[in-house]
Amino acid sequence: MSREEKTLPLTASRPYGHPAPVLVRGASWDLLRPESRSFNREETAPAVSDNNPKECEMGNGSKPVRLSYEALLELKRWNTPSVYNGWEAFTKQDRTKGHFNLEETRDFMPQMGPMVGYAVTVVIEPSNPSYPKANPNAWSEYRRYIAAAPGPKIVIVQDLDKPNFVGAYWGEVNSNIHRALGCVGSIIDGVIRDVDEMCNAGFKAIAKRTSVGHAYSTPVRWNCEVDVFGCPVKPGQLIHADKHGFLVIPEEDEAYLPDACRFMDANECRTLIPAARASAGKTMEEVLREMDEAGRRFGEAVKEKFGTKGEG
User: Is there a domain that residue 300 lies in?
Assistant: First the structure.
């Protein structure tokens, strides 16, 4: 563990860690306006937040262009598949792996809806009793890292005991503590307990299963890249998650995401969905013909805006 990780400064934040709004520059598309359907990725070059150590930096070292709190609230209104639809329409990344879970997840609070936030990361090994003795101050040092990171935050936990999980990192006490530090929930490739109490705290959890005990759950290392459910996650990356799984947004794509989701959602509602819903009283041939036409118009709109075909 580096000295940098132990001495991260605390920063003031809005309630529950919500950041003050920061408007994104050079990354907006006016919905369905042909004259503004292209964008220049070079205008923004997101890197890392000010609170991430140098060894975790990505990109060209410049400061990240973060979405406003209002934009994050808008993203929370869509489910994760809808956000994926927007992301895949413009990303240059591999849309088949590396940015979402490849293994099955379980949302223990689906009634809370999607969660969106920036990743803070930690590695645990509850079966190993040596860690609490080796660093008795681990919890305090780890909490200072969590508190210093900009919010809203989602705690991404890698359990080294996988697949033989023995102890829960999350329960009533830890979820309340992290909620006070600006965290809205967690994705843990491991186990949780006190599900009702966690829900009462307003702390969402996506995990493998439940467990009765916590064993030797303690932070082993933090603010580092982790792997959960077959997906790598770095500190500071934007996460969108719900009962379907989670999506990790590459930093260079973050600024364009809300407008892309907005466009793709509207495009579906104006083409494919009406064609499918308006089939009453029509012959099957008419239905198929209208679906073909709707698919053509859907694809043309996506191609005109992003230069790709989209899912149509």
Answer: no
Q: Is residue 305 part of a domain?
A: no
Task: Kindly state the DSSP code that residue 86 receives in the 8-state scheme.
Answer: H
What does the block give as tokens for 236? 């500071």
Structural domain count, the chain: 1
Q: Is residue 227 part of a domain?
A: yes
Please give the Cα distance from 132 to 124 (Å, whole number): 11
- Contact criterion met (CB below 8 Å) for 205 and 108: yes
pLDDT tens, residue by residue, 302-312 = 999 998 765 64
User: Could you tell me the residue range of the domain that residue 111 belongs to?
Assistant: 3-22+44-258
Instruction: Give the pair of three-digit tokens for residue 26.
Output: 């050079």
Domain containing residue 13: CATH number: 3.50.30.40
Best CA proximity match to 254, nearest among 94, 31, 48: 48
Q: Which two tokens stand for residue 139?
A: 């919890």
Write the pLDDT tens digit of every residue in 11-60.
Answer: 233 333 333 333 333 333 333 333 334 444 444 333 333 333 223 333 34
Taking the C-alpha atoms of residue 118 and residue 234, their distance in angstroms, rounded to an integer, is: 10
Among the listed residues 89, 144, 103, 20, the one whose alpha carbon sits nearest the alpha carbon of residue 310:
89
